[in-house]
Write a structure and sequence with these properties.
Strand content: under 5%
Largest sheet: none
Shape: elongated
Low-confidence stretches: 57-64
Length: about 200
């Protein structure tokens, strides 16, 4: 946005200088030299500012890309760690432990999604904040999967909650892959197919 504005100002100054030069040519008695000199000085200043701004912007983008790469690659170890903790709960076969295991994974997915979403421009998810968008998505998926569970005769008891939460976690997993796909599209350091394969193996 700022770079476009700088280029626009530069274009306007050049245009005004050309117009003044034409007027001065047709009316040589007019004293347009001071104005043209001022505009020329502004143009010279912009010639210094614009490249400096673009270089700084490029460095900032490189830093962002490095942060993205580090975060995305680190997600594999974080997922594996979360699933190891959750599996300790699941292996007990006890309902409340199963719920605790699902909650570990659920919290992990929410944290990861919000971290990835923060790397996108504001307003990327419409008029809602990242948190509002995520909560809206989770609610919609819970409603959807509860309706499916009810159609299968599972009702809304403890077992249904465990199954539905697992299904919602699967949906969150897919949403994370979508964000990683978008972020990695501008980065050559991440092979998305390999990353997705390792991401699935980390469960």
């Amino acid at each position: 946005m700022i770079s476009r504005l700088l280029f626009l100002v530069e274009f306007i100054i050049i245009t005004v200088m050309c117009i003044l030069a034409i007027i001065w040519f047709k009316r040589p008695d007019g004293n347009y030299e001071p104005i043209i000199s001022i505009l020329a000085s502004l143009l010279s200043l912009l010639a210094l500012v614009v490249p400096a701004y673009l270089i700084r912007k490029k460095h900032k983008m490189n830093d962002i890309n490095k942060n993205q790469i580090h975060l995305i690659k680190n997600l594999l170890d974080r997922k594996e760690s979360s699933f190891l903790r959750a599996r300790e709960k699941w292996d007990t076969g006890v309902n409340f432990k199963l719920r605790e295991g699902n909650e570990i994974v659920h919290s992990f997915y929410k944290d990861v999604w919000l971290q990835l979403a923060s790397m996108f421009p504001s307003g990327n998810f419409g008029n809602m904040s990242n948190e509002e968008y995520l909560e809206s998505f989770i609610k919609e998926r819970y409603d959807h999967h509860y309706a499916e569970a009810d159609s299968k005769g599972l009702g809304e008891g403890a077992l249904a909650f465990i199954i539905v939460t697992g299904d919602v976690n699967d949906d969150l997993d897919s949403k994370i892959i979508e964000l990683v796909s978008d972020l990695s599209s501008s980065c050559n350091d991440i092979n998305l197919a390999t990353w997705v394969k390792n991401w699935k193996l980390a469960e």
